[in-house]
Amino acid sequence: MAEVQGKWVKLNQNGTGPGARSSHAIAIVAQKAYVFGGEFIPRVPVDNNLYVFDLNTLTWSIAEVTGDVPPPRVGVTMATVGETIYVFGGRDSTHKELNEFYSFDTSTNKWTLLSNDDSGPTHRSYHSMTASDRHVYIFGGCGVAGRLNDLWAYDVVDQKWIKYPTPGDNCKGRGGPGLTVAQGKIWVVYGFSGVEMDDVHCFDPVQGQWSQVETCGEKPTARSVFSTVGIGKYIIIYGGEVDPSDLGHLGAGKFSGEVYGLDTETLAWEKWENGSGLESHPGPRGWCAFASDLRDGQQGLVVYGGNSPSNDRLDDIFVFSPGVACN
Question: Which of 78, 115, 233, 260 is the most exposed place for a label (fewest CB within 10 A)?
Fold first, then answer.
């Protein structure tokens, strides 16, 4: 079995950034990371500033924005298509689930409310969001009346929502799942459905069909609220909650600090060596903001903040660069 190498790098930070938080979101456009939402105290949204971190100068700033600025929220998601960031849902300071869908144009710094009616996904938080060249995808999350397992796409060209078929009973409603696009399919990985889950499902938008995927190899333990990116044929996951707290969202459960890759061709999991225990390693955490980034010509994973095993919110930034397989 080839050993897959990967490297974590901790980034220095200059300027005034968002500070420690969890349940927030991050999106990257042209070597700038945009951070929105989150909490420092459980279930209390911090602010609605849009923070910008320049990945070249490692400096924070706060964007001067116009338009339909979203109110503060936690459990929110972001995804990028071109120079536009899309933001959906979350939970406000009254613990109300939201269904507002916004765009943010990074070339003009303008927010636009695109929808907040029944044309799109219902109210939810702690769902998952990813994007392809033309579509933004939303799956699952915590809805008004329980956990959800529906999949939606927003066509950024036609500017309309598409509701895909709902998966079967095997794919239970869940919060904090992994969601990414690989090999032309949309993949749902793990999540929390009252217990931590370890199942994988994928949807083929061409065939319009769901399938449950039987994986093999060095399978990660069940988990939720982890970081997920798709890089080529691989789905890479980091961290997450592997054992929930008895206090629910008010407490800290047991977290993982490991990196795994799922080869979507062979359907084999592999643990990726990542320098655990080093200062450059983020350690165990969950509820992070994460996004895919291109650095030095190689795609990788950016992780910002999150919650720690001590229930302290974190404010550090790390980049994971996957290496090549070697003997």
Answer: 233
